[in-house]
Amino acid sequence: YRDLHTFELQAPTRLIEWARGNRVCVAGYGQSDGNEILQLIPPPTLLTKETQGLCPERDFKVECGGFSERPVYSLKYVPDTSLLVTSGPPDSSLQVWQVSAEDSDVIKSVSTIATENGTGQSWAKIATISTRAPWVLHGSRLDRVQITEVESRKNVYTAASRGSEELSGLAFLDCNTLLLCCATGLLCLADIRQPQSLVEAMSVPSAPCSEQWCMGTRHGAQGLEPSSQPVARVSSRGLLTLTDLRKTSEFLALAKARVPSPGSGVEFLCTSWAPALEGYLAISGFDGTVHVYDTQSWDSSGREAEPIFIHEGHAFGEAGGSGDSPLVTVHTWHLQKPRTLFSAASDGSVHVWDWVQPCEKC
Amino acid sequence: VSLVLCWCPGAGQDVGRSCILVSIAGKNVMLDCGMHMGYNDDRRFPDFSYITQNGRLTDFLDCVIISHFHLDHRGALPYFSEMVGYDGPIYMTHPTKAICPILLEDYRKITVDKKGETNFFTSQMIKDCMKKVVAVHLHQTVQVDEELEIKAYYAGHVLGAAMFQIKVGCESVVYTGDYNMTPDRHLGAAWIDKCRPDLLISESTYATTIRDSKRCRERDFLKKVHETVERGGKVLIPVFALGRAQELCILLETFWERMNLKAPIYFSTGLTEKANHYYKLFITWTNQKIRKTFVQRNMFEFKHIKAFDRAFADNPGPMVVFATPGMLHAGQSLQIFRKWAGNEKNMVIMPGYCVQGTVGHKILSGQRKLEMEGRQILEVKMQVEYMSFSAHADAKGIMQLIRQAEPRNVLLVHGEAKKMEFLKQKIEQEFHVSCYMPANGETTTILTNPCIPVDISLGLLKRETAIGPLPDAKKPKLMHGTLLMKDNSFRLVSPEQALKELGLAEHQLRFTCRVHIQDPRKEHETVLRVYNHLKGILKDYSVQHLPDGSITVESILIQATAHSEDQGTKVLLVSWTYQDEELGSYLTSLLKKGLPQSTP
């Protein structure tokens, strides 16, 4: 490690979201009510490009917080507004919140975007964009995907329903193109200007046992043709696929990660691309570790890939003796510092770490 | 009955000035008496005219309590007791009492001798002030006077720091001072029992921070020291005599042992020796682990750390030196600093806050050319690092303490009100108590509901539950008795017993009420109607028709007479004793409604 900072939250989080002004947001997902949404200011040493080492201010500051009655499974800021949207069980409705850090430090609940609740609906996955207006893309199943205008709560678009597979993720590729990922691994593209068509993109290699998939898309790289960025998918068995959305008939690359067989870990499956390092991908959710891979060395053979770095810090949790070793719930890359990642685990720990690039020879 | 307090805190940064005045059930207590480190004039002392415009402080204040020896909590004490004038008792724990005079004298020397101040307290004043100090033990209840008592609880944070409970009758306040809910290498964590005070006053300086883990801080500190020593450099660590110095010694000692390092570590003599001496004396104030290892091996006797001699500073090769004072403003640490500053291989690690004007503060702000005495310029090429191991409670710690003590109200000091709304809501939601955050100089009044216990005599209880409708768990039952206040006790007894005890004669009160009823028939028929009517309604009561023509309901008497002028009207006389007031009124209003038409 070049740098390692460990923190402990009062309650574990399963999301780490970046907000305007280099703020970071976390939220509790406990069953009982009184889950907190916390918007944090990272310590100055983590914000500057240069690592400072010993520094007076090494702590996160809680800038503002809110209370959510339901567990918060997903949270997205609405760009160019002071709003954020959350979702969580028991249904697929969304909660809209207002952050006004100057006046008070309370994040206030503003409204709810209700959705029709069919049976067996789980929580909605969300994505936001504000190019035309503040929109939130949400849905828990393939046949329930819609875009709602955040402030007016008006429905702007509904995807043509196909199957009723559960979604594991969705994203705006640009202001007209949506990418949906099902838990079965199926990727779908949709153009919101043509509501009736839902293009089925890449499927995944079929497996003997059922596995769950999730995707990682390039994090808002400005100015680049969005569909040229490969989409990564990772399964609960450790299979990794890279797909170029322009050529969806074949895999760009296929690899296997060395991970323990899926136990209870599928809930927190997470993969993301490094914003500042070409081809670097991180995965987590199998155990108490986060793996970082250089995908440029991958091919389509599907053999085992060697991670560049494994962060094991969460496995040696300070809350010892509780039996279960903690599970990494989420990770995210620092937007500016190329090798810095944030990761959170089920024991409430949050680590910020900066790994050293191993030399080619060793 | 209320609890009033006002306070004059610091300027909202890391180090302020604590001084809180609490008024509880008529007693006035001052909590802490701190000095503001950022000012050089009178602003550094709290404004005591807040307390009383005229009249002596000694008459007004019942006692003063000091929570721990940090300057911002007790620095103004000699000024207060000797220059402003206070002769009453000052309470603090034994370690605090032992350490305070040393630090006060040290601070006085620096302020007067080095900075040339005149309006400052003298050595004699410090001595006179300390004579008024009464030392207390943990968990020992101290009677300040007949009604006021105080008790100290372990607070962690620094050696001798305590949280105090102040109790008058059944009202109490707990003041935390600075505390820490997580144990560190040489101190335990704060602890309090479920004392359920009316008010908990807690510091909240670090309430909005999520602390970096200790392990990481220590790791970085050790890394820096190691790197410097490996390349042959010298590390200077200016320390306050007491506090973090011991912690860092333990840390380095363990690290040196583990890594098998050979570079010498030195501890400058003087104050720090005394400090170690005190730690050994007050070993019971340290944490469990230290006490256990003390039995096997004295944790404060170090294998790798030796006493320093001035000449060693010139020795070639790597070394680590702990020297006082902590802000590099004078003395040995400054001397060493001057010798080593010119070499970029060396490093100085500042372990804490530095007051403006000191060399420590200057180099931390980035200054690299310093003017010394005799207009000599010192160029600082050595590395300057800062590290903070301060131990205060964060939001999680505050919640833990509230959970332990179960106060009815919470008051947070040392925070900025605007930014504390979230924590306030959090406390209010989780514990259902009110949370206050007064601003500088503001007075907060908290109303308390004292409980006054009253004993009820068994005979009275039995009697009252026997008459009337059966006791219902959902309906409150009104009972009659007499409250006797005698010899500081409250008792509820039957009137007869009260009369007997007080030697009084009983007076009987009887009420008679007239109810007019339209009924042209004869009196005895009216009576019959009334009887049947009441019998039908008052099924749970004993309603009787007596041979003399009157009706009784329990012990209430109803008689009917004809109206003197109007034959069509009958007058019912309803008569009852004071004890039957409730039933009597009820009957009267019932009868006033009139009799049902269809009666035989």
TrEMBL record, chain A:
GO terms for cellular component: cytosol; spindle pole. GO terms for biological process: cytoplasmic microtubule organization. Coiled coil: none annotated. This is WDR73 protein. It comes from Callaeas wilsoni. The lineage of its organism: Eukaryota, Metazoa, Chordata, Craniata, Vertebrata. The gene is Wdr73.
Automatic annotation (TrEMBL), chain B:
Residues 245-363 form the Beta-Casp domain. Its main location: cytoplasm. Residues 16-233 form the Metallo-beta-lactamase domain. Belongs to the metallo-beta-lactamase superfamily. RNA-metabolizing metallo-beta-lactamase-like family. INTS11 subfamily. The keyword Disulfide bond does not apply. GO terms for cellular component: cytoplasm; nucleus. It holds the Pfam family Lactamase_B_6. The keyword Cytoplasm applies. It is found in: Cytoplasm; Nucleus. One of its GO terms (biological process) is snRNA processing. Signal peptide: none annotated. Keywords: Cytoplasm, Hydrolase, Metal-binding, Nucleus, Zinc. GO terms for molecular function: hydrolase activity; metal ion binding; RNA endonuclease activity. It comes from the Eukaryota. Its cofactor is Zn(2+). It comes from Callaeas wilsoni (North Island kokako). This is Integrator complex subunit 11.
